[in-house]
Write a structure and sequence with these properties.
Elements: H1 3-21, E1 28-33, H2 45-49, E2 54-59, E3 73-76, E4 80-83, E5 86-89, E6 99-102, H3 112-116, E7 123-126, E8 143-146, H4 149-158, E9 165-168, H5 172-180, E10 188-191, H6 202-222, E11 226-229, H7 233-237, H8 241-250, E12 256-258, E13 270-275, H9 280-288, E14 292-295, H10 302-306, E15 315-316, H11 319-327, H12 331-345, H13 352-364
Parallel strand pairs: 1-2, 1-6, 2-3, 6-7, 7-8, 8-9, 10-11, 10-13, 11-12, 13-14, 14-15
Antiparallel strand pairs: 4-5
Helix pairs in contact: 6-8, 9-12
Length: 368
């Protein structure tokens, strides 16, 4: 049977099922997960929205996780199907959907998917996955939920010529992390490098896997801690080859573990975090009030240095500098340092979901 015919039949069937789940009495909100990476970013937002709205979730793959159980209904509607070398893009237009919220974007078809997936008329809100700086700036969305003051500075620069509106609300995932944080000593540090975009060329694989292996070995030799290696969720969910190589290298070492869990459970057992440059470090230190350290032999460019990616005084350019920082950690002063940063930077700590809902109330009433 022709694959396009099968896909058309599938789209028609799911479209009808989605329509049957929508309300004629309440506004309808669709939460779209284009990828599974950022499903935990919504925190308790879906539960908050369900109080007054009909909320559905749309996923591109079924994982049977909490996200799929969080709304009034969940639907498997992939935006893309890959068959051999051919990419098929699926879509429909459901006029009864009033608002679409997503924590990720795809960028394919010159933004058409991000602008029209499921509905051509629904307002669209983007919930960024970075706490302290911008990401996902696009003309294909109507509103951006801004988590912090440093993020607002960057978003204002990037959207100065766009119609997108910025809503200073906070960060739902951070609120949940803060609420659930319970430090449990495990004599462990987490090494969490940022996303590695790699292909199968061994020169690139050697560079990334070699760098991370050297860092793990150095930490084992120069500290008494166990090391939890946490590659970017996109790297470990797709089991990229460099990640496989590192696992093979240390699979029999009792002091090395590989953290492949979604969310921020690692906050609870990590004495401190080491990364190259990453906004996860800010989420970790803001929630735990424990230190994050950066290892970057070469400085960031001006744009990234200005944004919330690293803290200069926590950065090391070589192993000698890193050893000095790790040997002289003052956890109390670090706690004071990060608490001040958190309290002066993040919007609506602990109440971001309520702040977002207040903005959505205004949007759906046509007042925003």
């Amino acid at each position: 049977m022709n694959i396009q015919y099968q896909l058309d039949t599938f789209v028609n069937l799911i479209t009808q099922k989605i329509k049957e789940s929508l309300s004629s009495k309440k506004k309808n909100i669709a939460i779209i997960s284009y990828y599974p990476t950022y499903r935990s970013n919504y925190g308790n937002l879906i539960a908050e929205l369900k109080k007054d709205y009909n909320v559905i979730t749309i996923v591109e793959r079924i994982l049977n996780d909490d996200f799929e159980k969080s709304a009034h209904a969940n639907f498997h509607f992939p935006w893309r199907i890959i068959e051999g070398a051919t990419h098929y893009y699926l879509n429909t237009d459901i006029k009864e959907i009033d608002l679409i919220i997503t924590a990720d974007q795809v960028g394919y078809q010159e933004g058409k998917i991000d602008r029209t997936f499921l509905s051509k008329k629904a307002k669209r809100i983007y919930l960024p996955h970075r706490l302290t700086t911008d990401c996902g700036v696009s003309d294909n969305i109507d509103y951006i939920i801004v988590p912090s003051k440093t993020a607002m500075q960057e978003f204002k620069l990037k959207t100065s010529k766009m119609k997108v509106k910025l809503l200073p609300c906070g960060y739902p995932q951070f609120d949940v992390t803060l609420e659930n944080y319970h430090y449990t000593p495990a004599n462990t540090i987490t090494y969490a490098p940022t996303l590695r975009y790699v292909d199968t060329r061994y020169s690139n694989l050697n560079a990334y896997a070699g760098f991370d292996c050297n860092m793990i070995e150095w930490l084992l030799e120069n500290t008494k801690y166990n090391v939890s290696y946490r590659s970017h969720p996109i790297n470990y969910t797709n089991n990229h080859l460099f990640h496989q190589q590192i696992k093979a290298r240390f699979q029999h070492n009792p002091r090395v573990a590989f953290d492949c869990e979604m969310g921020n459970k690692f906050f609870n057992f990590s004495d401190y975090l080491i990364t190259d440059w990453s906004t996860t470090s800010f989420a970790y230190s803001y929630a735990t009030l424990r230190p994050s350290f950066f290892f970057m032999p070469f400085p960031l460019d001006k744009e990234l240095k200005r944004g919330g990616y690293i803290i200069e005084e926590q950065n090391s350019r070589n192993f000698a500098e890193l050893k000095h920082k790790l040997d002289s950690i003052d956890f109390e002063s670090q706690k004071t340092f990060f608490k001040k940063l958190r309290d002066t930077n993040v919007y609506n700590v602990g109440t971001s979901c309520q702040a977002i809902k207040e903005q959505i109330d205004l949007i759906l009433k046509g007042k925003k």
